[in-house]
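dude i think i finally got it to work??
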Amino acid sequence: QLQLVESGGGLVQPGGSLRLSCAASGFTLDYYTIGWFRQAPGKEREGVSCISSSGGSTDYADSVKGRFTISRDNAKNTVYLHMNSLKSEDTAVYYCAATRQDFGSIWFRARPWSPVLYEHWGQGTQVTVSS
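look at this
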């Protein structure tokens, strides 16, 4: 069974940090572009960051640039989202997703945050930023 499992969420004070993990089981992430998305109550799901299969290319939403870093360890079949300088507006359920779309393809680069591009999704992990 193909599964993505997120972990690392929790309650953190503004300005704090968290590291989210996205572990795959039942398949290898080596050939997948991975995206992180988030959804706050009453809001649409939005793309946060994505990373190419090799880890050599990344992209970030403007709202998290300079604060979040995406990375991957294909040997561990895991992708990470390092979140620093967290703000209350970062509060959301965070999801990772996998797509066989090539990161560098015109098709993907035109719409990297389109959820329909991603074939596999995790169940999400809650991140709450509050004092």
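Residues 75 and 83 are 22 Å apart (CA to CA).
im so relieved honestly
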